[in-house]
Amino acid sequence: MTQVPSGSPVLRVQALQDSLDSYGRVRAGWLFGLIDQAAMLVGEHLTQGAVAAVSINTFQLQVPVYLNDTVTLYAECLRKGQSSLVLKVSALVERSDGNTVLAAEVIMTYVAVDDQGKSRQIA
To answer: Using CA atoms, how far apart are residues 77 and 12, in angstroms rounded to an integer?
Structure first.
């Protein structure tokens, strides 16, 4: 059993047929879209407003994700600056046999933005 990542669970999604490549594995783009969504939810909560991704610091895929695997995304804030956040999102996968594995870890930088898309101070 894999240790639960630090941070809070943000999203839980099952991998379905439309997320797979022709070899039965989840496409990295599908998984990254979920990771970005989880990070944005946390970023918007922490900054009390809109955020925009400005950097993918690391994106490490560890194991494939397969059809019917359940992906739980955990997010934590590593650093909060005057207008930016560095967030870590971990994708924990529960296989159909009940085993859990860490599938991916991503560290990204987000900037708080105003209605015009310009950087703003975090309250």
So the answer is: 19
